[in-house]
Amino acid sequence: MAVSLGLEDVFIKYTGLTFIDGNAGVLRYRGYDINDLVQNTGFEEVCYLMTNGELPNSQQLAEFKKSVKEHYKLPDHVMELISDLPREADTLTMMETAFASLSSGDYQWNKENDRKQVPKILGENLGIISNIYRHKMGMGLQNPEPKYDYAEAFLRNCFGNADEKKISAMNAALVIYVDHEVPASTTAALVASSTLSDMYSCITAATAALKGPLHGGAAEAAYKQLLDIGNVDNVENWFKTNILDGKRRLMGFGHRVYRTYDPRMKIFKKLATTLEQTDEQKKLFEIAVKLEELGVKEFGGKGIYPNTDYYSGIVFNEIGFPIYMFTTLFGFSRVLGWLSHITEYVEEEERLIRPRAVYTGPDKRDFVKMQDRK
């Protein structure tokens, strides 16, 4: 009996959300190319698109934004919970804990209200992630200002202010990371949703999966790799010593689906050049470009190319975030993708996900009493 370890190339649902052509390097949300969406929309527009199936008109977008902003303010018990967590705690653990606490008043799935909950959860998501950052930095917690749109409200609550280039880059990053079919975290959310668990618990399950280093953490690892190299003059020797001879994995390269350049990576690379760079950030970008050149030359023939995480850490750092926030920023955006998939699955499939396992243990054995065991 065939078993697909890791569920590789196993199709577990029908979806109208995200299309990927891994050979051509194409990514579309609801039929729209990722490049068009990044260049021409804001995060809230894409949220509306993923939730409702069509891009909003101006009135629909205004109403959607208003409903999201109404929920920037977190319940007192969630703010208290975040402030009580150890500052040294992992940021994804904080995210997981905060969303779990929101499930306390929402015990099961409600099909009549599922889509109506999306703006509410998105607003709470902004409050949670921005206050996790504030808590980690030793700042007092505060609710985001509802007069600002999503990306700007987030950056202002984290840093106190935000220039237009950083707002634009944050907005683009949020759009880029919205969804990518069914990786491990989305699958975890789907399994939870198939039991008709509530949306907050599904997000908690997804966040737990994202916390694992084989799924989340790639942007952090790729960024630390650049720090390890230290200088563009060291790239060739580092590559030969560590990758070619040392057989280390080249972080930020390779993807289960793409056999060419990840289209998201190209956008992040361009974004990195639009933001103001410190001397250190310029140096890291130069290292990344040189390392990309060597990596593609060596591994491109095998279908191994830079993925979305290769340059994203550089962009997040240029916006102002430390390394420990990178994966949480991915989750910050992907909450919308998780919500979209679980809503789609429960509304259209509503079937409990219950796979099987091939037994490889011993055949039937006679029970041996304690006194007779060796």
Automatic annotation (TrEMBL):
Catalytic residues (UniProt): 255, 309
Single biological process term from Gene Ontology: carbohydrate metabolic process
Keyword field: Transferase, Tricarboxylic acid cycle
CDD domains according to UniProt: citrate_synt_like_1 (cd06118)
Name of a matching Pfam family: Citrate_synt
Catalytically driven reaction(s): oxaloacetate + acetyl-CoA + H2O = citrate + CoA + H(+)
Enzyme Commission number(s) from the entry: 2.3.3.16
Matches recorded under InterPro entries: 2-MeCitrate/Citrate_synth_II, Cit_synThplmales, Citrate_synth-like_lrg_a-sub, Citrate_synth-like_sm_a-sub, Citrate_synthase, Citrate_synthase_AS, Citrate_synthase_bac-typ, Citrate_synthase_sf
Superkingdom of this protein's organism: Archaea
GO cellular component terms attached to this protein's record: cytoplasm
Pathway: Carbohydrate metabolism; tricarboxylic acid cycle
UniProt-listed Gene3D superfamilies: Citrate Synthase, domain 1, Cytochrome P450-Terp, domain 2
Gene Ontology terms for molecular function: citrate synthase activity
UniProt xrefs under NCBIfam families: cit_synth_II (TIGR01800), Cit_synThplmales (NF041157), PRK14037.1 (NF010640)
Record PANTHER family: CITRATE SYNTHASE (PTHR11739), CITRATE SYNTHASE, PEROXISOMAL (PTHR11739:SF4)
Family: Belongs to the citrate synthase family.
Protein name: Citrate synthase
